[in-house]
Amino acid sequence: RKEVEQDPGPFNVPEGATVAFNCTYSNSASQSFFWYRQDCRKEPKLLMSVYSSGNEDGRFTAQLNRASQYISLLIRDSKLSDSATYLCVVNRPSNYQLIWGAGTKLIIKP
Amino acid sequence: EAGVVQSPRYKIIEKKQPVAFWCNPISGHNTLYWYRQNLGQGPELLIRYENEEAVDDSQLPKDRFSAERLKGVDSTLKIQPAELGDSAVYLCASSLMVKRSGSEQFFGPGTRLTVL
User: Fold this and answer.
1) In angstroms, rounded to a whole number, what is the distance separating the alpha carbons of residues A104 and B41?
2) How many CA atoms, within 13 angstroms, populate the side-chain half-sphere of residue B30?
């Protein structure tokens, strides 16, 4: 089992819709979780950190489910510009390393 | 503020040739990372530096890859000799510090390597 797993997609979603995807992790001791966004042929950029109580940033909501060991990202009122690959990142406490998922590709259609 | 700078942006070489990548992190960032990213995959850590010390190089293929970070600032990553399977995007990232819980990483634009 991979340390961090994501559905590769693509998720094809009409503009204005709500879309959500999850990321599962295997190390129950992990404490930090992030969502990064990567546009085609560009570098990853931090979208948001994921806090235990859940957090929201505009149209984006991130949540953590420790019991089931997954994090989620919800995008409301999706825009064409939201089309990208969303990478889930989880820390590995033993060596401070951040482990990256393979990403979920999102395509917003007009 | 300038971001992470990498060069070259693109490199095409024949197999068995050497290649080197250069990275200049964000000023003041003491931690520097080299990642390799293949198409459809997430970044894979090759090496992490804290200042000039390589603190995690467990995934660096040491038979052909080497890296250095002179004076704890700029870094170079070298492959010698390159193999076909080394074709990938090589990303450099930096962060202000490494917390036990993880720190935000800022990435450079990457070097896209093609080995023929």
Assistant:
1) 10
2) 7
Size of interface A-B (CB pairs under 8 A): 52
Query: Do you find a cis peptide bond into A10, omega within 30 degrees of 0?
Result: yes
Which of B44, B56, B91 minimises the CB distance to A43?
B91
Q: For residues A98 and A91, is the Cβ–Cβ distance under 8 A?
A: yes
Collect all residues of chain A within an 8 Å Cβ-Cβ radius of residue B110. 43
User: Is the CB of B102 inside 8 Å of chain A's CB atoms?
Assistant: yes
Q: Chain B partners of A103 at a C-beta cutoff of 8 Å?
A: 40-42
Neighbours of A56 (CB within 10 A): 12
pLDDT tens track for A47-86:
999 988 889 999 999 999 999 999 999 999 999 999 999 9
* pLDDT at B98 (0 to 100): 62
Q: Which residue of A has its CA nearest to B35?
A: A100
